[in-house]
Design goal:
The complex is a heterodimer. Chain A has five helices and five strands. By secondary structure, chain A is α+β, with helices and mostly antiparallel strands. Chain A folds into two domains: 73 residues, Beta-grasp domain (Ubiquitin-like (UB roll), Roll), CATH 3.10.20; 64 residues, [2Fe-2S]-binding domain (DNA polymerase, domain 1, Orthogonal Bundle), CATH 1.10.150. In chain A, helix 2 packs across helix 3. Chain A is globular. Chain B is α+β, with helices and mostly antiparallel strands. In chain B, 52% of the residues are buried. Chain B has a seven-stranded mixed β-sheet. A five-stranded mixed β-sheet of chain B has the order 1-2-3-4-5. In chain B, strands 14-22-21-20-15 form a five-stranded mixed β-sheet, with helices on both faces. The longest helix of chain B is centred in the first third of the chain and has 28 residues. The chains are: A alpha+beta, B alpha+beta. Chains A and B meet through helix 1, helix 2, helix 3, helix 4 and helix 5 of A and helix 5, helix 7 and helix 15 of B. Chain A: InterPro entries: 2Fe-2S-bd, 2Fe-2S-bd_dom_sf, 2Fe-2S_ferredoxin-like_sf, 2Fe-2S_ferredoxin-type, 2Fe2S_fd_BS, Beta-grasp_dom_sf, Diverse_Oxidoreductases. Chain A: It holds the Pfam family Fer2_2.
Chain lengths: 148, 720
């Protein structure tokens, strides 16, 4: 049994220690907002926040995040009030198929919540780690413009 | 096209006032007391239900893969029904012949469903009016509808659709129905956001990968990277030794139709995804490789060299050869590579075969084909094959094939419980139906500083035997050229091919437009002005081709084509070019009833060519949802950048080489240039927007690069 802290709750996980966090979230905990897409940490669809940093969960063994605070897309904002990044995504109607968007949002949240006053280019260079096959980038840029 | 009367009548037992479902909702009253009210649903037709609480449910037949039918189709019903878009919940229809062709294919959704959906809304509206007229004992002619109410302006009475739903749904379906005039539209043409937006940004949206059924297990399948390999024998023991692995079975090659080819392999069935993925690495499989041909790029090139020296196998357009006397002939040879689909959501499907009843759930582009095929293969009545379509993480043509659905069902039948298959990214590429590699040989005859003859020999692997889906965008060029010869010869390869956004337009429009710019510049002409000259002065042109059905008679509205071209030139500042370090490239095409033109701007910076701006102009008739159309234009540009400047698929030893995003990167946010989008304001019937903007983007970029660098571009991606 491995204990993980996800969205401020503790979970006892019955999975071997090398299991990637993504599959534990999806198959064990029914938290399906984090998506499988490349399996090699190259597209960002599976990103979650690990101690505030956006990290691809598809290659992240659960053994490596035992002491970490994990936040998934389901843990952002509250039922009454979404996270400002989610609100910006809604305002700009960003998603098309939507499959990559939870990962995009997690990356943007990791930048937003750190208050580092990054320049626009620096924000885009971090967002470059997430792929969107529908090409929603122009609207992501507009959503980011309203946030940073 | 579905017959409206049949359609509306089939929808429910006429006059029954069918209550489809009852549930309860707590509505908070002023006194902090919770009042429990019963919600009843009434069906008006297969697209529409109304509740007694004045809400509408609209059933969307076409799969949502990011192209927006759940928004646009619902808007069309609401427009005629006169109900606020916010009062509507949208549900995905299960596969049924009642809807006709439900495919997300060929950018035809709006064209196909525009009228039936308007009629669905208008019919229900008339029935609601009549119900109100009966209650008030007046004639329904003097009543009108607004915001979900029937209004009697004379007496200032009103009744909500919810109050009328019961009565109205019992009325006979009107024989004929009047539709709104486009100038009276108040919803169509307005910017509406997706009904799935909130679920998508909170992680609640359900894609195929997220669907579940009680008792389901997860399946991962080992297949050989080369399609013709067969399983000779396998040892399942080591995989079976992993706790949580329940079975290891062989999956046999099965190809009832090309678009449902189940490839041979060995499947691991396990309690969860990771166990299945882990255990499959322990399988020991001996492959029969006797039928493998070690194809590679060199072999394709040799095939081309041989074929281009021979006359085309199929002749699409043939001029009077005796009239062709040119001053000189320019020859062009192009190779446009294989492209993969790389949907963000890899293939997967959930299937259950139990007691001669099948349930299939997942992302697909063709619900009817899945239902029909499985009904035929397993000899089950259609109603025993339930196909539920979830949201799809991209499609781009890949999900028009339904191999993944058939594969999941075959496995479920064998193991006796529901299964969810999951393909890895690499498997998703290896078992893709690629856009075919194509070769093009042009011989352009020049006389009096004009193109006098145009010979274009196309070679691809055909999707269906001969030239059917392979020549559009080339054989139907509407140019004012005296002698046009178009030929087609099939390429032979074992690589599996299929539809990819805009199909043959994706390669043909590239080469055609690149030839025009190169020839124009070579003759010392302005490519834009020369293009206009090629489009002549006629209003329209009908091109007859020796192809079956609508492909044999192609209509091009030249006014609309010239209009998008001129608009793109104007918006991009074509006439004010003066930069030494920058250049513009222009291209245009028509795709079915839609017209698009693009201008790309590239600059030279630190000895590198960079794409800085794209101007995009689209005429897709009357626009239903401008946000959806813009998204398709942006997506087309993003797709185009990937295949023009970044990636492709190459074959070595019969195997695709670029399997994941490390070796096959696609467009990322920093690759996107400045965009200038323009949608032509039009009252023509709505036509497609998903594919039409794509084909002219790659040649616009290539033409800009050629203009700037003078380097001839003969393949993609452009190496700059």
């Amino acid at each position: 049994m491995i204990t993980l802290t996800i969205n401020n709750e503790k979970y006892q996980i019955d999975a071997s220690s090398e299991t990637p966090l993504l599959w534990v979230l999806r198959d064990h905990l029914n938290l399906k907002g984090s998506k499988y897409s490349c399996g090699i940490a190259a597209c960002g669809a599976c990103k979650v926040l690990v101690d505030g940093n956006a990290v691809p969960s598809c290659v992240l063994p659960i053994a490596s995040v035992i002491d970490a605070k994990i936040t998934t897309i389901e843990g952002l904002g509250t039922a009454e009030e979404l996270h400002p990044v989610q609100k910006a995504w809604i305002k700009e109607n960003v998603p098309q198929c939507g499959y990559c968007q939870t990962g995009q949002i997690i990356t943007a949240v990791s930048i937003y919540d750190k208050h580092d006053n990054l320049k626009k280019d620096e924000v885009l260079s971090i967002m470059n780690s997430n792929i969107c096959r529908c090409g929603t980038y122009d609207r992501i840029k507009k959503a980011l413009d309203g946030l940073f | 096209m579905i017959n409206r009367r049949d359609f509306m009548n089939l929808s429910f037992t006429a006059g029954s006032g069918l209550i489809l479902g009852v549930n309860y909702s707590c509505i908070q009253g002023n006194t902090e007391k919770h009042e429990k009210i019963e919600i009843k649903n009434y069906s008006f037709n297969p697209f529409l239900e109304l509740t007694n609480t004045n809400k509408a449910t609209i059933y969307i037949p076409v799969p949502e893969i990011g192209q927006g039918p759940r928004t646009a189709l619902a808007m069309i019903v609401c427009e005629e029904l006169e109900i606020p878009f916010a009062n509507v919940s949208v549900k995905q229809a299960i596969a049924s012949t009642i809807y006709g062709d439900m495919s997300a294919a060929g950018s035809e959704t709006i064209d196909k469903f525009y009228l039936p959906l308007r009629e669905a809304g208008a019919t229900a509206k008339d029935m609601l009016k009549l119900a109100a007229a009966n209650i008030w004992n007046v004639t329904s002619k003097n009543l009108h509808c607004k915001n979900g109410y029937v209004l009697d302006t004379e007496s200032e009475r009103k009744l909500s659709y919810g109050e009328l739903a019961d009565e109205a749904s019992k009325l006979p379906i009107p024989e004929s129905v009047g539709l709104k005039k486009p100038q009276d539209f108040n919803l169509i043409g307005t910017k509406q956001k997706s009904p799935d937006l909130r679920d998508m940004v909170t992680g609640k949206a359900i894609y195929g990968f997220d669907a579940s059924l009680e008792g389901m297990k997860y399946v991962s399948i080992v297949r050989h990277p080369v399609r013709e390999a067969k399983v000779k024998s396998f040892k399942p023991e080591r995989a079976l030794a992993i706790p949580g692995v329940s079975q290891v079975i062989e999956v046999k090659h099965f190809k009832p139709i090309p678009y449902a080819e189940v490839l041979p392999g060995v499947a691991v069935i396990a309690k969860d995804s990771y166990t299945a993925l882990k255990a499959k690495k322990l399988l020991e499989i001996e492959w029969d490789l006797s039928e493998i041909e070690n194809e590679d790029e060199e072999a394709f090139q040799n095939q081309y060299q041989k074929l281009k020296s021979q006359p085309p196998e199929f002749v699409l357009r043939k001029p009077d050869i005796s009239k062709i006397i040119s001053d000189r002939v320019l020859e062009f040879d192009y190779k446009i590579p294989f492209w993969g689909h790389f949907c963000m959501e890899p293939m997967n499907f959930l299937a259950s075969y139990h007691d001669d009843k099948c349930v299939l759930i997942g992302s697909n582009q063709r619900p009817n084909l899945i239902q029909d095929l499985i009904s035929k293969i397993f000899k089950l009545p259609l109603e025993n094959v339930i196909v539920e379509t979830t949201l799809g993480g991209g499609g781009f043509g890949r999900r028009l094939a339904v191999d993944y659905a058939l594969e999941a069902l075959i496995i479920s039948k064998e193991v006796g419980h529901p299964v969810k298959t999951l393909w890895t990214r690499e498997e998703n590429t290896l078992q893709d139906y690629f856009r075919s590699l194509s070769y093009h040989n042009f011989r352009i005859g020049i006389k009096n500083n004009q193109i006098h003859s145009w010979f274009h020999h196309i070679m691809t692997k055909p999707i269906a035997g001969g030239p059917r889906y392979e020549v559009q965008g080339a054989a139907d060029i509407p140019f004012n050229i005296e002698n046009i010869a178009i030929g087609y010869t099939p390429l032979k390869t074992n690589i599996r091919i299929g539809s990819w956004r805009s199909v043959s337009h994706s390669y043909n429009v590239f080469v055609v437009n690149n030839v025009i710019t190169e020839v124009a510049l070579g003759l010392g002409l302005d490519p834009f002005r020369y293009y206009l000259e090629l489009l002549g002065n006629e209003n329209s042109k009908t091109i007859k081709l020796p192809l079956r059905g609508s492909r044999g008679t192609v209509e091009c509205n030249l006014d609309r084509l010239r209009n998008v071209l001129v608009k793109a030139a104007e918006l991009s500042g074509w006439n004010d070019q003066n930069g030494k370090n920058s250049a513009l490239g222009i291209a245009c095409t028509y795709f079915k009833k839609s017209y698009a033109a693009h201008v790309a701007e590239v600059i030279m910076k630190n000895n590198k060519v960079r794409l800085t701006k794209i101007t995009s102009v689209l005429d897709c008739g009357k626009v239903v949802n401008p946000l959806g159309v813009r998204a398709q234009m942006e997506g087309s540009i993003s797709d185009a950048i990937a295949v023009t400047l970044k990636s492709n698929i190459t074959i070595q030893d019969g195997q695709p080489q670029e399997l994941n995003f490390d070796a096959h990167d696609i467009t990322r946010i920093q690759d996107m240039p400045e965009l200038q989008l323009h949608i032509i304001d039009s009252n023509e019937n709505p036509s497609g927007a998903g594919e039409p903007p794509f084909p002219s983007v790659p040649p616009a970029i290539a033409n800009a690069v050629f203009t700037l660098t003078n380097k001839k571009i003969r393949t993609l991606p452009i190496q700059i």
